[in-house]
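DM between two lab members

TW: hey, do you still have the Alcohol dehydrogenase catalytic domain-containing protein entry open?
JB: yeah, one sec
JB: this one, 359 aa:
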Amino acid sequence: MKGFVFQGPGRSAWQDVQDPDVQDPTDAVVRVDTVTICGTDLHVLKGDVPEVRPGTVLGHEAVGEVVEIGADVRAVQPGERVLISCISACGRCRFCREGMYGQCLGGGGWLLGRHIDGTQAEYVRVPFADTSLHPLPASVTDREAVLLADILPTGYEVGVLAGRVAPGDTVAVVGAGPVGLAAIATSRLFAPERVVAVDVAPTRLETARKLGADVVCDAREEPEQLVADLTGDLGADVVIEAVGLPETFELCTRMVRPGGRIANVGVHGRPATLHLEELWARNITVTTGLVDTRSTPTLLKMAATGRLPTGQLITHLFPLERIEEAYEVFAHPAETGAIKVVLGGPHREVVPASEVYEG
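TW: and the structure you got?
JB:
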């Protein structure tokens, strides 16, 4: 089979790789029908995630069909259509029992595309299949479901829930990429007074407005002053960092009110300065986190009833074999307008890459 392989910082290729098989009795092998590219994959390609070794197939989000299961798998069967979670969970360790699957001590956590071969291939081995695969209802399409593998749980759990968004809050989301947009959309579930989206790309700001942002702001036009003006100089109750750069994190610390919360979602490849000389007396709470995906069943229920605007996040569709082109499109959103790029496998009819999904 073929897969998209990390060959070292700045180098990758769609190439022949070994077919996966069941290695442990809790494994499943899934034929990949729909997959997507994550901003974290771009960080891997830059060398920001050093534990990813050259030769690893990238990707941790997919929808597909189970083709083989280990002897101990009970929750899914061959032929079943499933969502592959970005987090693998043993389900038995202390952290899994607390719902902190991303911190799994039993050999799970973020494995796919990091410690083992990932989903950007024709087939993938999924460890801990009973807790890491989600059977899909017929009412949820592959394209809708694949966005629930990572970005929607991440924006919701690490951004909205960790930031404790509440009715009447002013919420500022710095970074209107896929995860930031997911945070904007799911923050509306808690009836904030206003949501402010900050980015540099006009297309992403326009999408943010469609997904529920009340105010949008170019990051180069003093967003902290805008938030101050909107809140009577108090600042935002919750600021969600969804970029992963030192300057955007420091911007968040200038936008938050005393007693407010900063929820860091972005993947940081460089140190960011925490100005405690300015923040120590302001009662600020800063949270970080790797998604646990404990909210995936809830989000699937909402997707099945049309309560999640997943279609508006998809801007480009490619056949899986054109993944190198898809990466180029996704990596340059200012030029391409890309938000979420979705790729279809050889077993599904796909829309040509030139056709933009209208939702």
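TW: got it. Residues 151-161 form the longest helix (11 residues). The longest strand covers residues 28-36.
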